[in-house]
Amino acid sequence: RVGELARRNRPRPVTSFAPLTMCPLSPRKGITNPTRPQPTATPQPTSILTNQRPEMTADPTNQLSALISDIHDAALERSRWSEVVGQAARFVGGRAAAIFSKSAIAGNGDVQYEFGTDPYYRQLYFEKYVRLDPATAGHHFAEIGEPMAVEDLMPYPEFTQTQFYQEWARPQGIVDFVSAVLDRSPDGAAMFGVFRYEGDGMADSETRRRMRLVVPHIRRAVIVGRLFELKAAGTAALEALDAFRAGVCLLDSSGKIVHANAACEAILAADDFLSAAGGRLVAKDFKVDQALRDLLAAVAAEPENRAANADLPLRAQDGTRHVMHVLPLASAARDLVGTAASVALFIRKAAIEIPASPDIIAQAYRLTPTELRVLLGIVEIGGISDVAAALSIGETTIKTHLSRLFVKTGARRQAELIKVVAGFATPFASEAARA
Prior knowledge:
Blueprint: H1 2-9, H2 54-57, H3 60-76, H4 81-92, E1 96-103, E2 108-115, H5 119-129, H6 136-141, H7 150-153, H8 156-159, H9 163-169, E3 174-185, E4 188-197, H10 205-240, E5 247-251, E6 257-260, H11 262-270, E7 274-277, E8 280-283, H12 286-301, E9 310-315, E10 321-328, H13 331-337, E11 343-349, H14 359-365, H15 369-380, H16 384-391, H17 395-409, H18 414-422, H19 431-434
Antiparallel strand pairs: 1-2, 1-4, 3-4, 5-6, 5-11, 7-8, 9-10, 10-11
Helix pairs in contact: 3-4, 3-10, 15-16, 15-17, 15-18, 16-17
């Protein structure tokens, strides 16, 4: 009996470690003073073997199958991400997790999806400590998809001496943070990470193995979800182009029409100075068409060449003049519209356009209805005698209203009145025109 009691009372070996985290998130709740968080005592060493979470000791096969299914569903239904991130945290062996991004260069970042995290420490991290986090640079250069814990990035004793640990990590009681890079840009990285607290122990080989099982699916779902978002945004952007009064046509590098708004479709249907042949946009003027081909070739050779901007003159059969603005699309713009377009064309009549709602001019300058009619007549018709005849008003009356217009608008001659009206021109077509 004495020997049995001795064996029972014999101290058990423990694995010694101190708390740390490498991510801007923490599930600590109940902060009473956000400007001065209450410090916590230094956590005592905890045995990894005797404190593993139940999810880590169970057969992961069924859990993994259900988790993968939920991850793929979240790609199509964003509202499910928080729940799925929590499931992934429990599967890996933590209480909280997040999908976030941060930049080692800019010293900022953001949380896309999270579960079980504290908003105070998230904000504090991105406002101050992201620049002090010694692991930020390591995350930036880490291999995509490969799990990392603190000991994979730097010696732990060295970490505990940093300002980041002393002021931000230590008060939270987090002992480890295992993460993996999902994607990388020139100035930052997107990541998935799981927190391990005192009761969870440090990340071990099983933690890393489980991370390797879920990270590829999370990465794929995040990318697919982003593509769906871009497609939805691109569709909305293309629909918005129909509101423009000018014709807008998106071309690929070969001149093929990728998209045309309602105004551009009307121009092409008229088959006058521009037309569509074999799905490609063609200018009836040979020199203009050749200039357009040269611009498309320049953009194809150097997609981000902003110097390829140009204005090309167009002339209709009735003598009406138009202008075509050629604008190469940057990669961000191409991603937004979700098409293979490399160039945007803006086609408009080379004339002063009366605003769709000219009443705004009257409101701005406090014009009477007759003064507004005279002002628009000067712009659309021309001289005093012609305006008087068109409005059935005597020339003396027109001159009187014209003098009042000069006083109210600050213009000194008729040409300046035209500029006033031009300044109120809208790029949007009227409802009647769109119909």
